[in-house]
Amino acid sequence: MAIVKIIEVIASSEKSLDDAIRNAVKEASKTIHNIDSVYIENIKAHVKDGNVTTFGCNCKISFRVEE
Length: 67
Fold this sequence. Notes:
The protein is an alpha+beta fold. The protein has one helix at about 15-30, and strands spanning about 5-15, 35-50, 50-65. It has a 3-stranded antiparallel sheet with strand order 1-3-2, with helices on one face. Strand 2 (about 35-50) and strand 3 (about 50-65) form a beta hairpin.
């Protein structure tokens, strides 16, 4: 039986929401192996002077624990 663990990461990017998610997975994969999926929560965008400046979200990253 596989054991799956979930961590929560706050992701952000000045480019896009897609880029923020990819950044979160890339950073997490530096120290975590066997990442299976990412569940996205609380999508947001920061606005300054009428323009979107950054995109962000909470990422729940799931991965299999090695036996």
